[in-house]
Predict the 3D structure of the following.
Amino acid sequence: MIGHARVTEEIREVASAYALGLLEDPAIAEFEQHLAECPVCRSEAQAFREVTGELAYAVPQVTPPARLKTELLRRVASARVLVRAAEGVWQKTPFPGIEIRRLFVDKVTGAVTSLLRVAAGAVYPAHRHGGVEQVYVVDGDLIFNDHTLETGDYEVNPGSTDHSSITTKTGCLALVIHNVADEVFSSERS
């Protein structure tokens, strides 16, 4: 294309497709290079960009049916996740001797499935559950203020409840399902 003296239907067609993001490479690069040299096409493309920006305001706001949200969440929840033993890494936490390996984060509910590895004598501070917490002790022990979980023990705690600090005598490996909204208390509250 060369610089144009006036707007034509072809220019309108290309400029509108460009403004709507409908051009594909290499046509995008070619048209953008042409815009640098042609004030007629540059003006037309700018006018179409302004119009396309206003299109969103021209469409009435519609609340989708509840079944659509339900179906979308069902589809998201049914996506398969597979984590192999050799995949993922143990990440240090701010608490010495405690590492976590995240297996899955449910972006809809905020539930997080993790492996928790706690060295003997390490302490995890008191905390509030942002959602339901499930703990299965794979190996070792977890000691709370009022009870101890040992290998094979399983515990569920409801959301919005507080938990004491946790330690271990022998070390521990646990499968934990917790929530991104969990809140760790300062050490003086343990």
